[in-house]
Backbone:
């Protein structure tokens, strides 16, 4: 049977192993196997009774979805370990909560829909190191909808995600330099409020210069 958590402040439902397996559409033997492999966290113990909660159920649904997408159990174990080593969402947003970028919440299965076979432990760790991803329970938080969509579009064009993430470090280095240049310029003649107020101008300059730089790279030089 399922029950409400003992702590009245915690409204998560709890399940015995048999009920958890039924809710997840798998066998008790499979739940036990996943627990032994470390794919789900140990249950809460109450005497001899083991209680599982909604986070366990969510993880089981994620495992099923990843298996349907062709991931192996060994690969899922490695992905789970990478997530467990990653930063949580509070730490991620603590790097400086974006004022314009919109974070996106995803399950591991939804992330696999974006990047398919490129969702590897190595790429996941690289995204965590970049600060692109954080975790919030069973959910993944991507720091920017725009960065997520652009990264997925590049991968669909045949560029490996590992190379996209490697390039992101270089982009960040140049972006930090441009931000410093703009901030110093404005602060020399104003204050921090002016930096915030004029930031759209900085974005416009960068977009225009990047557009012209791409033109120079793409357009062949004219013959004399």
Residues:
């Amino acid at each position: 049977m399922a029950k409400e958590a003992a702590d009245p402040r915690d409204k998560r439902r709890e399940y015995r192993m048999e009920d958890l397996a039924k809710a997840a559409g798998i066998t008790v033997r499979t739940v036990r196997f996943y627990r032994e492999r470390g794919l789900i966290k140990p249950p809460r113990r109450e005497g001899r009774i083991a209680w599982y909660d909604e986070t366990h159920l969510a993880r089981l649904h994620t495992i099923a979805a990843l298996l349907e997408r062709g991931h192996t159990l060994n690969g899922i174990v490695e992905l789970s370990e990478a997530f467990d080593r990653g930063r949580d969402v509070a730490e991620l947003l603590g790097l400086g909560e974006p004022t314009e970028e919109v974070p996106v919440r995803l399950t591991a299965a939804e992330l696999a829909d974006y990047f398919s076979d490129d969702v590897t432990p190595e790429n996941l760790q690289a995204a965590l190191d970049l600060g692109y991803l954080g975790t919030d329970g069973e959910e993944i938080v991507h720091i920017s909808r725009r960065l997520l969509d652009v990264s997925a579009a590049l991968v669909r064009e045949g560029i490996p995600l590992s190379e996209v993430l490697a390039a992101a470090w270089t982009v960040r280095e140049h972006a930090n330099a441009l931000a410093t240049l703009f901030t110093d310029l404005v602060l020399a003649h104003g204050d921090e409020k002016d930096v915030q107020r004029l930031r759209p101008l900085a974005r416009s300059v960068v977009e225009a210069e990047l557009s012209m730089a791409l033109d120079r790279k793409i357009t062949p030089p004219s013959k004399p």
Notes: Residues 107 and 129 are 19 Å apart (CA to CA). The radius of gyration is 23 Å. The first strand starts at residue 2 and ends at 4.
